[in-house]
């Protein structure tokens, strides 16, 4: 037996372990997008072969690009220094998506920042003060079980068809996610992590700001990304009830008139922005927690 052969054994022939990747790469997202578009196009062609009115129900990608996109010019009335031409103009269509996309993104940004601030502050307070924990934890769990999206019309009724209604609704929907995640993350900390600083005379305020908060940030990455996704679904629900601007308003109007080709374009833009928000949150948390493995 040679030296090389002698080194071969169970370890050398062992099959590699299966690794489950929970983070989607840019390549996998691209592949998923291509597969999804291909399935849509095949289904559209099959339906078109059996029904002359198939384009109104399941339009082909060509129809979406030719009529759906340019038809969005109807939703642009000016504001970006571009003349509002109306249906059939690609420049007006792009301006409509940019203008309403910026409005929706602004609402999401304001609501998400406030939701994270409120959720983290309340979460740390609940974790630190027992009476507050007894009074808030049950309410937070109950509120999390409510169908938040179904309550969007209620916020529009309270605050009117304004951006304020959208922002407050986002805070309502996302803050409880952050709150519960913070409470659970604090509960999962090792006891010595807080006991040792206390022996050095560190106050509760300094302990939670300088020790506990940095320690729980790595565990909050997933919940914060989920809160970002909830913010986008919440703004969509809010904008579909009474508001006259934003991507949700465009989506609602296209559905009302059964313009599936236009709806497809708006939905794609909406999905891209939501995905970008989740990626941005992940990057920001990663930058803040560079020290974490």
Automatic annotation (TrEMBL):
Keywords: Cell membrane, Membrane, Transmembrane, Transmembrane helix, Transport. Residues 101-281 form the ABC transmembrane type-1 domain. The keyword DNA-binding does not apply. It is found in: Cell membrane. One of its GO terms (cellular component) is plasma membrane. GO terms for biological process: transmembrane transport. It is a multi-pass membrane protein. The chain crosses the membrane at residues 24-43, 108-130, 142-161, 167-190, 224-243, 263-285. The keyword Transport applies. Belongs to the binding-protein-dependent transport system permease family. PANTHER family: ABC TRANSPORTER PERMEASE PROTEIN MJ0413-RELATED, ALKANE SULFONATE ABC TRANSPORTER-RELATED, MEMBRANE SUBUNIT. This is Sulfonate ABC transporter.
């Amino acid at each position: 037996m040679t030296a090389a052969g002698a080194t071969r054994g169970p370890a050398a022939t062992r099959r590699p372990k299966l690794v489950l990747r929970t983070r989607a790469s840019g390549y996998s997202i691209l592949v998923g997008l291509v597969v999804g578009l291909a399935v849509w196009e095949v289904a559209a062609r099959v339906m078109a072969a059996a029904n002359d009115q198939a384009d109104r129900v399941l339009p082909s990608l060509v129809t979406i690009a030719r009529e759906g996109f340019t038809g969005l010019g109807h939703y642009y009335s000016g504001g970006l220094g571009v003349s509002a031409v109306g249906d059939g103009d690609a420049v007006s269509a792009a301006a409509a998506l940019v203008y309403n996309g910026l409005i929706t993104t602004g609402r999401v940004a304001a609501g998400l920042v406030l939701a994270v601030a409120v959720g983290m502050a309340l979460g740390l307070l609940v974790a630190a003060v027992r009476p507050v924990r007894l009074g808030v934890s049950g309410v937070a769990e109950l509120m999390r079980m409510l169908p938040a999206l179904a309550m969007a019309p209620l916020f529009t009724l309270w605050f009117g068809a304004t951006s304020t209604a959208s922002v407050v609704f986002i805070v309502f929907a996302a803050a409880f996610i952050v709150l519960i995640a913070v409470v659970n993350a604090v509960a999962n900390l090792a006891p010595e992590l807080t006991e040792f600083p206390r022996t050095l005379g560190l106050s509760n305020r300094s302990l939670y700001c300088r020790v506990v908060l940095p320690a729980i940030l790595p565990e909050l990455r997933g919940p914060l990304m989920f809160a970002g996704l909830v913010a986008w679904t919440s703004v969509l629900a809010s904008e579909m009830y009474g508001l006259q601007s934003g991507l949700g308003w465009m989506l609602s109007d296209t559905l009302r008139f059964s313009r599936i080709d236009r709806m497809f374009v708006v939905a794609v833009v909406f999905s891209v922005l939501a995905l970008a928000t989740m990626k941005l949150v992940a990057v920001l948390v990663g930058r803040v927690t560079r020290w974490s493995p």
